[in-house]
Write a structure and sequence with these properties.
Helix content: 25-40%
Shape: globular
Number of strands: 12
Largest sheet: 8 strands, mixed
Strand content: 25-35%
Number of helices: 10
Amino acid sequence: MIVTGVTARVPAKLNLQLAVGPPRAGGYHDLVTVFHAVSLFDQVTVEPAGRDGITVTGEGADRVPADQDNLALRAIAALRVAVPDRGTAAVHVTIAKRIPVAAGLAGGSADAAAALVACNELWAAGLTQPQLCGIGATVGSDVAFALLGGTAVGRGRGEQLTPALAPATQYHWVLAFADGQLSTPAVYAALDRLRAARPADPAASEVAPAAQPDLDAALMSALRTGDAARVGQRLSNDLQQAAVSLFPALRKTLTAGLELGALGALVAGSGPTCVFLAANAERALELAVSLSGAGVCRSVARVSGPVPGAAVVSAG
């Protein structure tokens, strides 16, 4: 059968824990994070074309690069290098976005992962998921997890993954999208500034770095029991104070969610999306409605997790 186009679906990610070490040479930071894939999806379609190109529609489409800076096109270029006998054909990539751009949810990395899965199918390259994860790790820190999905511990820059040994308990989340974006490099730079100021500023002690970031054993224990209340108590993000310092309105959003009954709250990744854990689907609906009416965010979405990573949904 001649395949004329392949569509893959890929989820957004949350970081239930994000522990950040001091900066290394080159500006990167060692991380320990607990990734969690949730049911907010982008769709990526690849079709044979005369030359590579990209079209983006949906949430924040005007802010997505439509040239070789696009992570999906970079992922396809990396796949071509890995399968030079297969990946010779040019492709047109169409990204239908629902994951907001620059929101701390790894939407760009998700699109790269979907492009890898879709082109692997289109070109009949036959690469396994671990092989695709290896290629994805060269494109971006979160690409490998977008391929894997579920709940997993990430180390290094987040690309060294170990699936979490936890039951597939369904958790119910409310995402509060901010009216604005945050640059990931800017948030890391703010974290470094806050930590450097710690000796003169006691308030900065909340972001004091460990020599190496550590996995939160209490969070992993809570995930193994499937107890949403315990999970909510252990949510943590070393980038949160830095994100709030750059985007002060987030403090009001986080406070509102907790006052409205969320089991836990945190900024997603480098922000500015705020994430709230609810006890069940009914409470998530009530929380979403209340947050929407409180005027503390641009919009809200109810999602659940964990969900699988990038996967082909149609080929024809």
